[in-house]
Every structure is written in structure tokens, then in C-alpha cells.
Design goal:
The chain is of the alpha+beta class. The protein is built from 21 helices and 24 strands. The longest helix is centred in the middle third of the chain and has 31 residues. The chain binds 3-[3-(1H-pyrrolo[2,3-b]pyridin-5-yl)phenyl]propanoic acid. The site of 3-[3-(1H-pyrrolo[2,3-b]pyridin-5-yl)phenyl]propanoic acid has 12 residues, from helix 4.
């Protein structure tokens, strides 16, 4: 048994063919995510060198032809001959799976997390791969092709510095979808890494562009700078971000907190530089310490008698932006997407750090403390009011006996997976949609009344709003803490509004509501945006629909139609289409054009909604100018 096991191990260690055979197992996918992952894999090694205290700068260059180069000023990967393997340590690192770490037992490794598979995997998935090492006064070089060395590592010159430079070209026979890198995707991750590893300078250059596009990420404040960045454009309750950094039992803990005047809780957690989207023990520790410490101060304050009920965790976190980042020697990642930290020892450690740090902060900052406690009173009061509003709504029952709003035209099918609901702005469009739909599977909910901006409204007002309440009732899931995805009555929730500015406004308002109150619904990909056509083109007894100007020109070019032979109707709104046209262009699953709303990046999404819906006008104007806000740009 044991012998077999080690034989298997040797098998695995021998070649990189396994990686080329099942690339997805090593880097997650062979799509764009996997492609960008190659870069992160190489960068992680340089970050490890920096965390060990030997490297201060990492430079990532996208060269012409989508070649990646990662340079660092660390000690350089060792090049001496490895006693067991008989080749250079460099070659071992780049050709053997999981051969990292071995040479450097003392280093405090952070890579090796989620997909932390090492440079050899990148080598295996590259048409060619080159390593240049500067150390001990010399320059060393080795080149590989599809993972195999072309020649041994050899000395090629003298140097008075140290460092490692890796260049590679992703193999297009593996990354069949694309081998083109997206600057913004790399920039986002490198910015995050610079926040999470303070003091390390990370540069990104795109040589595919002229002039070369460049970003320089360097944050002395670490996660404190991260929270400042997240709270840009928000009204803060206190001037300085609350910040603690401690090492305890080998676990590094870094935490930053800042309350703002919104109703939104925005906490990001990281373990070993990996975003733990499903939370885990570090997040539990943070939340429990926050509630505990704030409750202690609340009970000793004049605000205590204003509390309608004892403080809840959500009260303490309303309007809180926070980042918790831990670095753990042996991280255990759990959960469906391995995005949850499992190490049980971490909870108590984080809890202790936050209890001590926050207590000290609150003692020293009475003015700020007062604002935070006052916010807690308001949150608790609104929470109780929201519950009463929910109970009242149930008692008054403004709905049909089945608990659904009267204006909903439901579908016949009962299996949610087969059902869709169109949320339609305006009664006339709603009427056309009701007549044009496939009543077996398509439900229509016309919206009426005044919509509010949930970003500026307290939760109790949001959930009793005349326009949103029917949406909540129709979907069946409940909201916020009582949200239950299992109860969703339609697997496609399609927002249908005019293709104009007003339509865009209502779409944004609804998306903000879904994002803030039913985030899981967005995350699970149930929200869609219907794309009604802007033009109807009639010529030679044919009818074509165009979704924008470019589309219109394309169709005219394709059919080679002279401008005077075609009649072009521009739709001003959905209401101008008759039921048949609406069905054909926007509702028929065979021919319609709908966009699924994605939530790839929570940081970016939060910032976009804050900019679009928040109080500050200049950033909103700038965003809209920069992005020429169209439906496509809402595809976040
Ligand atoms: C192990 C030992 C030593 C350096 C490194 C690893 C190292 C690896 C990478 C990967 C990218 N950049 C890197 N920089 C350094 C050096 C041990 C010594 O010099 O004593």
C-alpha cells in the first residue's frame, strides 16, 4: 500500500505530460481565467520571495504577441546542481510538479493556495518558456519548449545585481479560446496583491500598446489603503481607517475597518492572498469580535437606552467597509469553490486581535465612537421597523389570495427552471407583453409607481416600497437576511425597459436593488436584461430588426440595400411595438437577444453602484462620460 503510494508519487513527479493532458485540473480552466492564472502563478513566486524579505519589486510586462515577462529583484532561483536530480535546481523547479519550497524551508510561503501549482505548470502549458537568473555575480539562462529543456541551464554573462526573469508564451493548442491577455484583468489582481502585501511595488506594462500602457501599484498602508480605495466616493463616519496588524502563533493578521453613511456591509476576506469569497474562520472571528466589542461600548454609553432591541451583528456592520487578510502556514481551503478558510485556530486569533485593537481605538477616539454607536442605534431601529413593515404587509395583504401582486400575469408552468418573468416598466408595454408572451412559461410583471434609489434609502423603506414590494413578492425569495434562493419562482428574471435614457435609469435602479438586497440571485446568474431593437428595417418584402446603429449599418451592408429602397422605423419605446413584434424581437426565446448580468468582481461592482447611485455627482458624471453608459456596460 505504502509502496504503491510512493510509486504513484514518483509517476506524478516525473513528467509534465499530466498537466498537458488535464490542464483544467491544475489551473482551473483553459479559458481566459486559466490563461491569466499563468501570470498569477509566476507572480506568486516573486511575492513569496518578497514576503521572505528579499525582493521589493515585481514587474509584469505584456510583450507584443502576448508574451508575458515577470521580473523580480529577489535572490534569484538557485542554479547549483541538485544532488539527487543531477541537474540545476532551476531546472528541477521548472520541470517537476510541486518542486517549490524544498530549497527554502525557512521561507514563509504564501503561494500554494487555491491553484498554487508552481512555475512548472506554466512551463508545461507554454510553447516556450525562458528563465534568466542573476545571482552570485553571474547571469544564467535556460530555455524550454512545451515543458522540456532545450539545453541545460548555462552561464551567459556577469551581473552586479540579483533577480529572476521569466518569459513565456501560452500554448494556443491548450488555450484554444484565446491567448490574448486583458490589461484590466491583470491590473485588478496586481492591484489587489499590492494592497495585500504592503511595501511591495508591482508594476504592469502593456507593450502591445503605443505608447506603452503602464500601472504602478505600491501601497505603504496595505489593507488600510485597500479600505480607503473601497470607500472612495463614500461619506465616511471617521477620518482615519481603523487598522490593526499583528502576528500571533505564526498567523499574520491584518485588518482595516471604516464605517460610511450607507446601509451596506462590504467585507472582503483573504487568506494567503486568495480572496475567500465563501468566508471562513477569519471572517467569523472578525464578525464575532466586532459585535462583542461594540456591544460593550454601547452598553456603557448614553445610546444604550435608545436601542429598541439588543444589538445584532448586522446592526454593528451596517455601513461598514472592511478587509481582513490573514497569512497562515498551512491554509485549508474548503467549500464548493474552495473559497472558504477552514483553519479553526484562526478564528480565535482574529477575534483576539480585533477585540484588543478595536477596544483600544474606541477608547482613544470618543468622537468617532459616538458616530459609530449612533449608527448602530439607527440600524437597529430600522431593522425593527423593517420587520414591522413586513408583518404589516402580510396582514394587510394587498395581494391576491396566493400572495402574489394583482398585476402579475403568471405563467402556467410550475417548475421554476422552466419559468421566466419579465419585469416591464410601464403599463402599455406591460399590456403588449402580456398579449405577446408564451403564457405557458412566461410571466409578466408590469411595474408602476415611484421607484426609489435603494442606495440612499434605509432597508425598511426599501422593502415596503410600492414598486419593489411586488417584485419581492413575485420572485418569492424574500430579501436580505431572509433571502432564500431555493424559493425562487423563475430561473430567468428579465428586466425589460426602453432602450433610452429613462429605460437605462430604471434598469440601473433595479440592478442596484438586486445587487444590494438579492446578491445571490445576481451571483447565481438569474438576472437578465432584455434587448429590444432600436430599428425596424423593411425592404424587398423582408423585415429585419437592428439593436443599435452599428447593427443597422451591418444589415444594410449585408443585403447591399440602397438607402432609398429601405424604410427605417426607429422605435421610441417598447410601447410602440405591437404584441407580435414584441414577441418576435424581444421575447421569443428562439430569436430574442438577452444579456445575462454577471458579477465577476465584487469590488468593481460595488464601486460602480456607489458611483452610479451614491450622493456624489462629479464621480458619477465622470463615470458616465468615461463609459458612455450603455446597456452593454451594465454587463458587470
Ligand atoms: C528558493 C531559494 C532561493 C530563491 C528562490 C527560491 C526564489 C524563487 C523565485 C521564483 C521567482 N522569483 C524567485 N526568487 C527567488 C534563494 C536561496 C538563497 O539564495 O540562499
Amino acid at each position: 500500500m505504502n509502496e504503491n503510494y510512493s510509486a504513484d508519487q514518483i509517476q506524478i513527479l516525473k513528467g509534465l505530460e499530466a498537466v498537458r493532458l488535464r490542464p483544467g485540473m491544475y489551473i482551473g480552466s483553459t479559458g481566459p481565467d486559466g490563461l491569466h492564472h499563468l501570470v498569477y502563478e509566476i507572480v506568486d513566486n516573486s511575492i513569496d520571495e518578497a514576503l521572505a524579505g528579499y525582493c521589493t519589486e515585481v514587474k509584469v510586462v505584456i510583450e507584443k504577441g502576448d508574451v508575458i515577462r515577470v521580473d523580480d529583484n529577489g535572490r534569484g532561483i538557485p542554479v547549483d546542481i541538485h544532488p539527487e536530480e543531477g541537474v540545476s535546481a532551476l531546472e528541477v523547479v521548472l520541470t517537476k510538479l510541486h518542486a517549490g519550497g524544498k530549497f527554502d524551508k525557512n521561507s514563509y510561503k504564501v503561494s500554494g493556495g487555491l491553484h498554487g501549482v508552481g512555475s512548472s505548470v506554466v512551463n508545461a502549458l507554454s510553447t516556450w518558456f525562458e528563465a534568466t537568473v542573476e545571482r552570485q555575480g553571474k547571469i544564467w539562462f535556460q530555455r524550454f519548449q512545451v515543458g522540456d529543456p532545450v539545453a541545460p541551464c548555462k552561464e551567459i554573462g556577469d551581473s552586479d545585481r540579483t533577480g529572476t526573469s521569466i518569459r513565456f508564451q501560452a500554448d494556443p493548442s491548450i488555450f484554444t479560446e484565446t491567448t490574448a491577455y486583458t490589461f484590466d484583468i491583470l491590473a485588478k489582481r496586481l492591484r489587489e496583491l499590492a494592497f495585500l502585501n504592503k511595501g511591495i511595488r508591482i508594476r504592469l506594462q502593456d507593450e502591445r500598446e503605443t505608447p506603452v500602457k503602464e500601472h504602478d501599484f505600491f501601497f505603504e498602508g496595505g489593507v488600510k489603503s485597500f479600505v480607503e480605495y473601497l470607500n472612495t466616493n463614500k461619506n465616511k463616519l471617521h477620518d482615519e481607517v481603523i487598522y490593526f496588524e499583528k502576528e500571533r502563533d505564526g498567523v499574520m493578521v491584518e485588518i482595516a475597518l471604516e464605517w460610511n453613511d450607507t446601509y451596506i456591509e462590504n467585507i472582503f476576506s483573504f487568506a494567503n492572498n486568495i480572496n475567500t469569497r465563501e468566508g471562513g474562520t477569519h471572517l467569523i472571528g472578525l464578525k464575532s469580535a466586532l459585535t462583542r466589542t461594540i456591544n460593550v461600548f454601547l452598553n456603557e454609553s448614553k445610546f444604550s437606552k435608545k436601542m429598541p432591541e439588543p444589538l445584532s451583528g448586522e446592526d454593528a456592520r451596517e455601513g461598514l467597509t472592511a478587509v481582513v487578510s490573514v497569512k497562515v502556514p498551512n491554509p485549508q481551503f474548503e467549500g464548493q469553490t474552495k473559497g472558504k478558510l477552514g483553519n479553526s485556530e484562526v478564528k480565535g486569533i482574529v477575534e483576539q486581535v480585533v477585540n484588543e485593537g478595536l477596544q483600544e481605538y474606541l477608547e482613544r477616539h470618543p468622537k468617532e465612537t459616538e458616530k459609530i454607536l449612533e449608527k448602530c442605534v439607527l440600524a437597529a431601529t430600522a431593522r425593527v421597523a423593517a420587520r414591522k413593515a413586513r408583518e404589516n404587509a402580510r396582514r394587510k395583504n394587498p395581494f391576491e389570495s396566493n400572495g402574489l401582486p394583482g398585476k402579475l400575469a403568471d405563467c402556467q408552468e410550475r417548475d421554476p427552471a422552466k419559468c421566466e418573468v419579465y419585469i416591464v416598466e410601464g403599463d402599455s408595454a406591460g399590456g403588449s407583453a402580456k398579449m405577446g408572451r408564451d403564457r405557458a412559461t412566461q410571466a409578466i410583471l408590469p411595474l408602476w409607481g415611484k421607484m426609489l434609489n435603494v442606495e440612499k434609502t434605509s432597508p425598511d423603506k426599501v422593502i415596503s416600497n410600492e414598486k419593489l414590494l411586488p417584485v419581492i413578492q413575485t420572485l418569492g425569495t424574500g430579501v436580505a437576511d431572509s433571502f432564500d434562493l431555493e424559493k425562487l419562482r423563475y430561473h430567468k428574471v428579465i428586466i425589460m425597459a426602453d432602450a433610452d435614457v429613462d429605460g437605462s435609469h430604471i434598469r440601473t435602479l433595479l440592478l442596484t436593488f438586486f445587487f444590494r438586497y438579492m446578491k445571490d440571485l445576481v451571483e447565481a446568474g438569474h438576472i437578465y436584461i432584455a434587448m429590444p431593437p432600436l430599428y425596424k428595417l423593411s425592404f424587398a418584402k423582408q423585415v429585419h430588426y437592428a439593436y443599435d446603429e452599428a447593427d443597422r449599418e451591418k444589415i444594410l451592408a449585408e443585403f447591399n440595400i440602397a438607402a432609398d429602397k429601405v424604410s427605417i422605423q426607429r422605435y421610441k419605446g417598447l410601447g410602440e411595438m405591437n404584441p407580435e413584434q414584441l414577441w418576435e424581437t424581444t421575447m421569443n426565446p428562439m430569436t430574442r437577444n438577452i444579456i445575462r448580468v454577471k458579477l465577476d468582481d465584487a469590488v468593481e461592482a460595488d464601486s460602480i453602484f456607489t458611483i452610479l447611485m451614491g450622493d456624489l455627482v462629479p464621480p458619477r458624471r465622470k463615470f458616465i462620460e468615461d463609459n458612455a453608459l450603455t446597456v452593454a456596460n451594465l454587463d458587470i
